[in-house]
Write a structure and sequence with these properties.
Number of domains: 1
CATH architecture: 4-Layer Sandwich
Number of helices: 3
Structural class: mainly beta
Radius of gyration: 18 Å
Strand content: over 45%
CATH class: Alpha Beta
Shape: globular
CATH superfamily: Mitochondrial biogenesis AIM24
CATH topology: Double-stranded beta-helix
Order of helices and strands: EEEEEHEEEEEEHEEEEEEEEH
Length: 225
């Protein structure tokens, strides 16, 4: 598999596959593909059923891409203005917010790493669901705004607004808690959640969460008549 990431704040992932290579992505992320690419829904089992049970809602769907008759290309993107980053899972496990997972080689294993019921407005009715990515291969995370990558030293700490924490290496310790006495319009009255990260390892932070984008656009959406 070969890939390029193009664009600035409206990025696209371009994946080039040879025959017998398989790539998977979240449903609805395909922007274009060559005529010899074949896409099919992945069977609803394993991680998909597990996510459905843990979140209390419908399990998400994944789509697999294959090429027939030579090299094929598929272009993938997020649903909002976003950045895309590649993660080499063969060098170590990563934790990724479920909404941040864009796709991966099928040699990457997806498992529910954490699930907690938090503020509905920030995280949706299913709460916060983290995916643990393990195995081998390349995975891709996508999130709104720009990315800041921090390489924490041993015992170095960062406190990050939980919706803006996109992904982090498995070696990084994390603790999610509500900041006492702090509430924001996007918290739905449930408090402001902060994740404390303790190194060593890398963390990826986004400059704007989708909930922030939605709130900034809300005043400009026409009301129903």
């Amino acid at each position: 598999m070969r890939f390029t990431i193009t664009g600035d704040n409206l990025q696209l992932l371009n994946v080039q596959l040879e025959e017998k290579e398989v790539f998977q992505s979240v449903s609805g992320s395909m922007a274009y593909m060559t005529g010899n690419m074949v896409m099919e829904a992945k069977k609803q089992g394993g991680i998909l059923k597990g996510l459905g049970r843990s979140s209390g809602g419908a399990s998400p769907s994944l789509v697999e891409y294959r090429t027939k008759g030579g090299t094929g290309v598929v272009g993938l993107g997020g649903s909002v203005p976003s950045k895309i980053v590649d993660l080499d899972i063969g060098k170590g496990r990563w934790m990724v917010q479920k909404t941040g997972y864009l796709g991966s080689q099928t040699t990457v294993d997806l498992n529910v790493g954490f699930h907690k019921r938090l503020g509905d407005v920030i995280f949706g009715k299913e709460g916060l669901v983290l995916l643990e990515l393990s195995g081998n291969g390349i995975a891709f995370a996508s999130a709104c705004g720009d990315f800041i990558v921090v390489d924490l030293k041993q015992n170095e700490q960062y406190k990050v607004a939980t919706p803006k924490a996109v992904a982090w290496q498995d070696a990084v310790k994390y603790d999610i808690a509500a900041a006492a006495g702090i509430k924001t319009p996007s918290s739905g009255g449930d408090g402001f959640f902060v994740t404390t990260f303790t190194g060593p390892g890398k963390i990826i932070i986004q400059s704007m969460a989708v909930s922030d984008l939605a709130l900034s656009l809300a005043p400009f959406i026409p009301a129903e008549r």
